[in-house]
């Protein structure tokens, strides 16, 4: 962003490459990457819209606790989340992650441009929507759980059902079974990698198709984590859901990933949007 529209995004490092997958088949990632500590907030989307006229829509959450600027940016469909990620890349001089034609329609990358078999993601992109594996690892994997690491049932570094809360930073607590949505920087327990609210608050889009074959523009996309109004089963690591990429409502938001790991934070501080790793944003 520029001027009053500058914003920051905090990232945490997801290390321990080449970890084994969970019994769901998810979570194995062969490289280091960074994952947003928080869901993207309403404030960030409003500033991006003002800075670049992105036209990203936000759900009116007045009847669910209000439209506070630190609350998760909900109501965003997958295509809008992809356009926001492209904006981050362009703001820092990097390659677009996702391809849209001259009419704004999403399309897959051509051979030689996409990352492996994933035709959604450009091989040279820096900021991304996390894949299902990247999101799942950040939420549920713990390198210290057992020899070689292991997975928790909940994204609070626990197999014990989390406490249902409306706000606060109590260990193993989650904003779920609630009638309203808490502020993004004031709710939920932490994962082993110190991400916040990968359970509860809002379900989160991932880059990946529900069938794991990322090669058709209109394929349903996976989202994980459960939302503020969902029950306990929606939070569990073996709970998966998906929707059309054109779908958006007040229960769905997203967070951002960075791949590959940046070699120098000086790349991120050169101007425009400000992105930081390992520092907690103050509300």
Write up what this structure looks like.
With 283 residues, the chain is an alpha+beta fold. 12% of the residues lie in helices and 19% in strands. The chain contains three helices and 17 strands. The protein has helices spanning 42-52, 78-91, 132-140, and strands spanning 8-14, 33-36, 99-100, 106-107, 114-115, 118-122, 127-128, 141-142, 150-151, 163-164, 173-174, 203-209, 221-224, 241-243, 252-253, 257-258, 274-277. The strands form six sheets. It has a five-stranded mixed β-sheet with strand order 7-16-2-1-17. A four-stranded mixed β-sheet has the order 14-13-12-15. A hairpin with a 5-residue loop joins strand 3 (99-100) and strand 4 (106-107).
Shape: globular
Helical residues, percent: 10-25%
> Which residues form runs of ≥5 with pLDDT under 50?
262-272, 278-283
- How many helical stretches? 3
Count of DSSP E strands?
Answer: 17
Summarize the structure in short.
This protein is of the alpha+beta class and 283 residues long.
Task: Supply the key terms.
alpha+beta, 17 strands, 12% helix, five-stranded mixed β-sheet, 283 residues, disordered C terminus, 3 helices, four-stranded mixed β-sheet
SSE topology sketch:
Layout: E1 8-14, E2 33-36, H1 42-52, H2 78-91, E3 99-100, E4 106-107, E5 114-115, E6 118-122, E7 127-128, H3 132-140, E8 141-142, E9 150-151, E10 163-164, E11 173-174, E12 203-209, E13 221-224, E14 241-243, E15 252-253, E16 257-258, E17 274-277
Parallel strand pairs: 1-17, 10-11, 12-15
Antiparallel strand pairs: 1-2, 2-16, 3-4, 5-6, 7-16, 8-9, 12-13, 13-14
């Amino acid at each position: 962003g520029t001027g009053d529209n500058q914003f920051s995004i905090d990232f945490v490092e997801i290390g321990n490459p080449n970890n084994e997958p969970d019994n769901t088949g998810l979570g194995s990632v062969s490289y280091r990457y960074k994952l947003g500590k928080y869901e993207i907030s309403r404030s960030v989307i409003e500033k991006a819209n003002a800075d670049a006229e992105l036209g990203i829509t936000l759900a009116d959450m007045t009847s669910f606790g209000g439209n506070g600027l630190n609350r998760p940016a909900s109501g965003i469909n997958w295509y809008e989340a992809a356009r926001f990620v492209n904006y981050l890349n362009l703001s820092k001089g990097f390659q677009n992650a996702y391809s849209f034609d001259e009419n704004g329609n999403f399309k897959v990358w051509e051979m030689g441009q996409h990352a492996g078999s994933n035709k959604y993601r450009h091989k040279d992109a820096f900021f991304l929507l996390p894949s299902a594996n990247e999101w799942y690892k950040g939420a549920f994997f713990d390198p210290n759980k057992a020899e070689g690491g292991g997975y928790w049932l909940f994204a609070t570094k626990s197999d014990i059902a989390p406490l249902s809360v409306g706000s606060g930073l109590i260990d193993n607590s989650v904003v779920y079974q609630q009638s309203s949505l808490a502020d993004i920087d004031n709710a939920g327990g932490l994962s082993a990698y110190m991400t916040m609210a990968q359970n509860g608050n809002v379900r989160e889009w991932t880059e990946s198709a529900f069938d794991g074959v990322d090669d058709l523009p209109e394929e349903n996309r996976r989202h994980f984590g459960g939302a503020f109004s969902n029950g306990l089963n929606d939070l569990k690591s073996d709970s998966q859901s998906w929707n059309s990429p054109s779908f958006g409502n007040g229960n769905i938001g997203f967070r951002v990933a960075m791949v590959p790991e940046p070699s120098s934070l000086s790349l991120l501080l050169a101007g425009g949007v400000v992105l930081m790793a390992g520092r907690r944003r103050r509300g």
